[in-house]
Structures are given as structure tokens and as C-alpha cells.
Design goal:
15 helices, seven-stranded mixed β-sheet, 533 residues, four-stranded antiparallel β-sheet
């Protein structure tokens, strides 16, 4: 008799989940009622949210650091560390005053000098920060609580740029940490946010612990998206790194963990039918799953090879492999995702139901493909990407491409993807990622939407024509002008194929019903406001 994966789970559960659990997950104590245990979609290896764009590092940053402004649930910027701010009549000088009660976890006060250093460091790598600096005369401390940004010309999106959470996000660090170049990782993990990183309990590869910052002074407004009062209602949050999905799910059912960020799609029906568990969509804008190709190395240094990938992909097949349940996915052809004000159908003739492998094969031939190895980074601890990577390798092999999987956990991919070299020297050809549909509209701050090689994200596409259009985005005044610019940008983007979409999906988290108050926003998962009954 053949035993399916789902029935195997049921057998394991019925047997009392007699799995070899890590000892740290066993026997809850009285303190467990004030402790939340979470399994994130990956392993935290990089701790500096300016140094890397990994979402798990963004979650880490959101916990221990704070920001000058934050987006509310309607995606409008609201003051966070800033108490008061104003702009001069000529719209060129912004003055910011920090609110009272801001302190670092080491006991020192947050100052304007910390903010100035943090902005300058962030602006070295963030596209929105670079655009701001191109128009900036000076950023300077005025006194301990006040600093200014002086512009050479008005920039109406300045506050939005400071508030956006497109990684790398503007988290404020101590001046001595922010004085490092953005290419050197800050490892101190000392912030001013609502959680403190517990260095003594850090177990790399196993778990990381965050304690409530008892000295944190939240804003008086109610929590609203990333904005408002960051009130921590538990004493401790532990991120357990459980790479085996069967073990993690058994722990969730047994009440030994409270939250799984990326439950396997084939377990959705089991979760739906468990009276103690809930599937919850935190990011209602959905996420676009996409391929990044290394545009610096063969074969994808040739635009026709990248265009071949557009024709090759059968989005429905990839979404079935990655997500499974059709309630949670749809196809997407617009650079701007589905359902945004800028979504359009310009230059999308390449899309066909089922894909077009013959056109893809011809384009690879025109690109001069000569059997070069195509290395696909395969994150074995994220089932959605794992399944999609295997399907991609098989799909490429069917049209004669020498595709090879490079399996590792997600942390290994985060470590490997900065390598710009050929595959023979530890480089790569393709990896998969996703980002929120909301992020697809941020052409000022989103590095995935940049096409100027070194200032762009991993994959390093280049298009001077597209960049000239992107530079106009911050100056658009009317919705009609913006929609027309969006069509022009999308036409050029699909011509040089900076990325390839695999589909758009909603990704529910799984939690125990006793864990409530989670804040739903794109990109990151805040840990304040949640509580256990």
C-alpha cells in the first residue's frame, strides 16, 4: 500500500506525535503563557537589515530597532521616533525633532546624531535613499533631539521614502554602528525598539530569543499597521529553527510552538480541520513569486535567454507546485502586480496558458546557448520554493538546457546570492524569491525594481532606458501621468526581462487559536500587539 505524505502526517499525529523534538521545545511551564514560539520561513544568519534585504532580517530589525516614520494600515506615513516635524516654505528644508523617551538597549539616549548617521548609511544602498541624496545639500544635527535634511530641489515623496519598508528599510542605529559602511555588517544587535535581542540565549542554527524591552516608551496612538503604539504583550518571543516541516507541524499541533510562518500548502486542509489551529493571511496584498537571473554571467547575460524564460514559464503549473490550493493563487503579467492602480497589460504578449516551450527553445538558440550549466539555487527548507525549483529544473531540461539544482537551506542562499561570479566559482544562475504586491508599486525605494547593475538587487539587470523612466516616478503629479509612465516602464522592463514572474499568491500563516493580535502588513511580521490566551 502506498502511503501519501498527508496520511503519513495523520499517522504521526494520531500516534501522539512521538517525534524527536528539540529539548528546548518540551514541557511548557507557567512562563510559557507569556512566551511565544515561532518558526520562521528560514534561518536568521544576517542580522543587519541595511546589509541584506532578507525578510527574516527585516523582521529582526522591526523587533529590535525603531524608525523615524512608519506606514499605517492604509500605507500612509506616520511619525514614529519623530515627535514633530516641519518643512520650509520653499519645500527644501525639513526639520525633525525626536519624541521623548527614546533610549538604546545599552542604557544610553537616542540622539539626532544617531539618526543622521543611520540615514547616511541607509542611503548608500537603498534606491530611495540614493534618489534623496542626489537632491540633498546636507543632513545635519541641530541639537541632541533635532536634525535637518536640506534639499537642492523639492522632493514631495521625502516622508514616504523615509517611511517605506521596502528592504533595506531605514531602521535607526547607534551612531557608532551606523558609522560603518553599508557593505560591512553591524553585529551588535543593540537597538531602541520594543524588543531586546537576548545575546546569552542566542543559539545560531537552533533558536534566537527576543525579550520585551521594559524601558521602551510606545507612542500613545493605537497600533495601526507598522505605525502607532508598539505595545508588547508578551515577555519573550523565541524563533525556533526547525527545518523539518513534519516536526514543525507536529510541534504546532502539540502546542509546543505557536506560529509557523510558511506552512506547507498540502497541509492547509489539515489545519482547516483542526479546532486548535487557524490559517490566517497577514499580507492581503498578496505576494509575487519571481525568478532572478544572474544577468552578469552566461547564459542570462544575453537578453534573449532572459526573454526565453518569460515564454517558458507555465505560471499555473508553478503555482500548483508551490502553493497547491487554487484559492490562494492567480497568474500575473503586469510588472505592477495584480490589482494596483498601476496594473496594466502593456507588452504582455509573451504570456500563454501552459507556457510556450518552443518559443523559449528558439530564443535560447538565438542567444547562442552552448550547453552552459544553469545552476538553480534550491531552498530545501521552504517547500514552496523547493517544489518550484525542482519543476524549473525539469522544465529547462526538457528543452535541452543543462540545468542543475544547488540545494541548501534559505540561509545558504542568502549567503551565496551576492556572488557575482560564474557558477564554477561558486556563483549561480537563477534563484527564486517573492515580494508583496504592494512593494511592486515602489519604484523609488524597491531595489528589485532597479536596473542599473551595481545599485540594483541580486541578478544585476541593466537598462538605461528603463532607469531614465524610473527617475521620473518621484516627480509625477497626476494619476493619469503616472499610469502612462507605468505603461512605458512595463514595456521596457519586459523587453529586457529583468525578472520573470511565476505567479501571485496569498501565503497564510498557521497559528494556534490561543495566539491573537497579529498585525497584518506586507513584507514584515511585527511581534508587538500579539498575545496568548
Amino acid at each position: 500500500m502506498t502511503i501519501s505524505r498527508r496520511n503519513l502526517f495523520k499517522v504521526g499525529i494520531a500516534a501522539g506525535t512521538s517525534l524527536a523534538m528539540p529539548s528546548v521545545l518540551r514541557a511548557q511551564t507557567a512562563a510559557a503563557a507569556r512566551t511565544v514560539r515561532m518558526v520562521k520561513s528560514g534561518d536568521l544568519r544576517a542580522f543587519d537589515p541595511i546589509f541584506t534585504t532578507a525578510d527574516i532580517t527585516g523582521d529582526h530589525g522591526l523587533a529590535i530597532y525603531d524608525s523615524l516614520f512608519a506606514l499605517d494600515s492604509k500605507f500612509m506615513p506616520q511619525p514614529q521616533m519623530v515627535g514633530k516635524w516641519g518643512v520650509s516654505d520653499d519645500k527644501k528644508t525639513y526639520t525633525f525633532e525626536l519624541r521623548d523617551g527614546l533610549g538604546w538597549h545599552d542604557g544610553t539616549h537616542v540622539t539626532a546624531a544617531d539618526c543622521v548617521a543611520s540615514i547616511r548609511r541607509w542611503a548608500q544602498v537603498a534606491p530611495g535613499g540614493r534618489m534623496m541624496m542626489e537632491r540633498t545639500r546636507d543632513i545635519a544635527k541641530k541639537d541632541d533631539k533635532t536634525f535637518t535634511i536640506e534639499l537642492n530641489e523639492p522632493l514631495g515623496l521625502l516622508i514616504n521614502i523615509l517611511a517605506r519598508y521596502s528592504a533595506p528599510s531605514l531602521f535607526i542605529m547607534r551612531e557608532k554602528d551606523a558609522s560603518r559602511p553599508a557593505t560591512e555588517q553591524v553585529t551588535a544587535n543593540v537597538g531602541s525598539g520594543p524588543f531586546k535581542f537576548n545575546h546569552a540565549l542566542a543559539k545560531p542554527g537552533a533558536s534566537f530569543t527576543y525579550d520585551r524591552n521594559e524601558k521602551y516608551v510606545p507612542r500613545s496612538e493605537p497600533a495601526d499597521g507598522f505605525a502607532g503604539g508598539k505595545i508588547v504583550k508578551v515577555d519573550r518571543v523565541i524563533w525556533d529553527n526547525i527545518g523539518d516541516q513534519q516536526t514543525a507541524f507536529a510541534a504546532l499541533q502539540a502546542g509546543e510552538i505557536d506560529f509557523i510562518q510558511a506552512p506547507p500548502a498540502d497541509l492547509y486542509p489539515v489545519i482547516d480541520n483542526d479546532p486548535n489551529l487557524v490559517l490566517q493571511v497577514l499580507n492581503e496584498t498578496g505576494s509575487v513569486m519571481l525568478l532572478r537571473m544572474n544577468c552578469l554571467q552566461k547564459p542570462f547575460d544575453n537578453v534573449k535567454a532572459r526573454q526565453a524564460m518569460l515564454h517558458l514559464i507555465d505560471q499555473e503549473a508553478f503555482m500548483r507546485a508551490a502553493i497547491g490550493d487554487p484559492r490562494y493563487f492567480k497568474t500575473v503579467t503586469s510588472l505592477f502586480g495584480n490589482g494596483t492602480p498601476d496594473t496594466n497589460d502593456e507588452n504582455t504578449e509573451w504570456f500563454k496558458q501552459g507556457g510556450d516551450p518552443e518559443s523559449a527553445k528558439q530564443l535560447f538558440k538565438e542567444a547562442g546557448y552552448a550547453g552552459e550549466k544553469v545552476v538553480i539555487l534550491q531552498p530545501t527548507n521552504i517547500p514552496e520554493y523547493d517544489n518550484a525549483a525542482q519543476l524549473l529544473a525539469a522544465t529547462l531540461q526538457k528543452i535541452g538546457i543543462n540545468a542543475e539544482l544547488a540545494p541548501s537551506d534559505w540561509g545558504g542562499i542568502v549567503t551565496r546570492r551576492p556572488n557575482k561570479g560564474p557558477v564554477e566559482n561558486g556563483g549561480w544562475s537563477i534563484f527564486m524569491t517573492d515580494e508583496s504586491g504592494f512593494a511592486r508599486t515602489d519604484f523609488v525605494g524597491n531595489p528589485l525594481l532597479v536596473a542599473n547593475v551595481d545599485q540594483g538587487w541580486y541578478g544585476w539587470p541593466k537598462s538605461d532606458e528603463y532607469e531614465a523612466l524610473r527617475a521620473k516616478w518621484a516627480n509625477i503629479e497626476t494619476l493619469e501621468e503616472r499610469k502612462e509612465l507605468a505603461r512605458q516602464m512595463q514595456r521596457v522592463w519586459w523587453d529586457f526581462a529583468g525578472t520573470v514572474h511565476l505567479g501571485q499568491f496569498l501565503a497564510p500563516i498557521a497559528r494556534r487559536k490561543s495566539l491573537t493580535g497579529l498585525i497584518g502588513m506586507p513584507g514584515y511580521t511585527p511581534m508587538w500587539n500579539m498575545q496568548k490566551s
